[in-house]
Every structure is written in C-alpha cells, then in structure tokens.
User: Fold this.
Amino acid sequence: MTYAQFSGRRVVVTGAASGIGRRIAERFSGFGADVTGLDKQADISGLPYRLLGVDLTAADQVKEVCDILKAERNGIDVLVNAAGVLRTGATEDLSVEDWQACINVNASGPFYLLSQWIPVFKAQRRGAIVNIASNAAHVPRMGMTAYCASKSAMASLSHCVGLELAPFGIRSNLVSPGSTDTPMLRDMAGGPQGYAALVSGLPGQFKSGIPLGKVARVDDIAETVLFLASDQAGHITLQDIVVDGGATLGA
Assistant:
C-alpha cells in the first residue's frame, strides 16, 4: 500500500534511534513526511529524518523539545510513541531502578509527550496518535512484571486519551507487537538462534508459541502503524491491534 497522503505531514516518533521506532520513522519519511525522531541516543548519522536527543523520562526536557517543535511547525499530524525498555526478572528480584525504568520510559514518557501535544491536537481538530504497547499488556509473562505493568499502563493511557480527544476528531490507537526482530529481543533471546524457542513456546514460563511460526519483522509493526495513522483508518479509534502471529491466541 502506498501512502502519498503523508507527504508534508508533520510526524513525531519517539524511540526513533533503533528498532521499531526507527523503522516507523523511516517509513513515514519514505512517503515524504516531515519526520522528527526523539530518542535519548541521537548521535546517529545517515538517517533520512531529523533525530533530536531527549530523555523522555524527564518532563522538563520533553517540554523543551516540544516547545521547539511547536514553534517550528505550527502543528502536528501524527504522534507515535514507540520508545520502550525491557527489564526482566522475578518480581522479588527486580530493583527499584528496574521498575522505575520500565514505568518511566514506557508509560510516563508517553504521558509527558501527550500532555504537550493534546492542546495542539484539540486546537487544530485533526490528527492521529499511535502508541506502541505490547502483547505483554494482554497476558501475564513470567519474569516480566515491570514490563507488563508498564505496557498495560500505556494501553490504558491510550484509551483514556482517545476518549477525551474523540469529540475533537483526533484518533488514538494502539499497536501491540509480540516477539519482533529488534536489538531488544535479540538481547533477551540470546541472539536470533534463540528465536526457535519463542516460536515453539516456553511451557515452563506459561508462554505459548507463535502459530505463524516466525517472529515479526519491524516492517510488520511499521505497516500497521502507517495504516492506523492514515486516512484509510479515519473511523478507527480506541483500538488495540495485536501483531504477534497469533501468540496470544485471540486473547
């Protein structure tokens, strides 16, 4: 599917230095969008979009960069919250830093961004928000308490914001990936060779396998985001599309 409609549209993507966020930013840029990526890591060259360094867990830094963008662009068309971190371990073994890292990046960061841009969305009465959660927000995971809780918080945040913005014509949706070939998954699985176990399932962790027999590509997630941000999805809001090859078995 082509999205010529994105040409010239103002798009902000968090977590745009790597993984899913980077691919989303690249895809929007490829269709001519005016893309700004936000990430704590910003010393990357050769990207087809501007990448600004910001600690998304720091509300003052988020406000500062948003003020700059508001002055430059006089509006926004699409906001994608894709930044995320993963900390694993049994609940009693998680450090306070582990817990706070997941909550601050995966839930508080999106809140800080949304609080800055919601007045702009309301004033212009148009736009789309796509938040990247996880299928871990739908089912419990062994050793992933902080991550599951933070992504569940993100999902609820997205739905509440969607309700508030619906009267203004703004749509807010979620994409919830399952196992996706990113640096974060490779670290967790011990490299691509560990993907076979994810596909077949981990009964000892009460984790089902992936019926489609493969982990997702970043493009699988990016394409879903593009659709939800597009005019073709103009009557879709408050939805959560799970892109996990059937791993949640329809839950």
